Amino acid sequence: MNNAALQLWVEKISLECFDLPFRHRATFNRRLKATGGRYFMKSHDIEISPYQLETYGAEETEKIIKHELCHYHLHLMRRGYRHRDADFKALLAKVGGSRFCKSLPERAQRKPAPFKFMLKCRACGGEYLRKRKMNPARYACGKCGGKLQLFVLDFKFES
Ligand SMILES: [Zn+2]
Ligand SMILES: [Zn+2]
């Protein structure tokens, strides 16, 4: 998706969810890494992190856009546009925006966790790698429905 498509997307969300037009600029900013989006009070422009879209997809990015549009519209209406303001909280809840500008959790920037466990089917021998410890009694083999046994891997598969 390029900036022109993002602009149209933000304009569409603004009209559909806020009943108000977005009359400024929305652009992707590749330097935004820990932050999903940003609203600029001086220019009234919005920036969205392309990593947000790449990592979390369109649905989560739409929530970030709604969050930034809450800042945008409330600011232009001279109402409470800051995170702690009641107007902001109410509008955000109404449109279903993300609660945080910073929606990219720290862990998304780190390497994915390696597999430390393996569930192995006692019946067919099917193997399932897991990052977290799981109780094998609570799951069944996805291929044959057989009972599973948990192994702790002493070597690590990188995912
Ligand atoms: Zn915010
Ligand atoms: Zn099986």
Give the low-pLDDT segments.
none
Q: What is the H/E order?
A: HEEEHHHEEE
Proportion of residues in β-strands: 15-25%
CATH architecture of the largest domain: 2-Layer Sandwich
Largest sheet: 3 strands, mixed
Radius of gyration (CA) equals 22 Å
Name the CATH superfamily classification of the largest domain.
Metalloproteases ("zincins"), catalytic domain
Structural shape: elongated
Tell me the count of domains.
2
Helix content: 25-40%
Distance between the termini: 27 Å
Q: Helices and strands: which structural class? A: alpha+beta
Question: Short summary of the structure?
Answer:
By secondary structure, the protein is of the alpha+beta class. The chain has helices spanning 3-18, 50-76, 86-95, 106-109, and strands at residues 26-28, 37-39, 46-48, 115-121, 127-130, 148-157. It folds into 2 domains: 3-109, 2-Layer Sandwich (Zincin-like); 115-157.
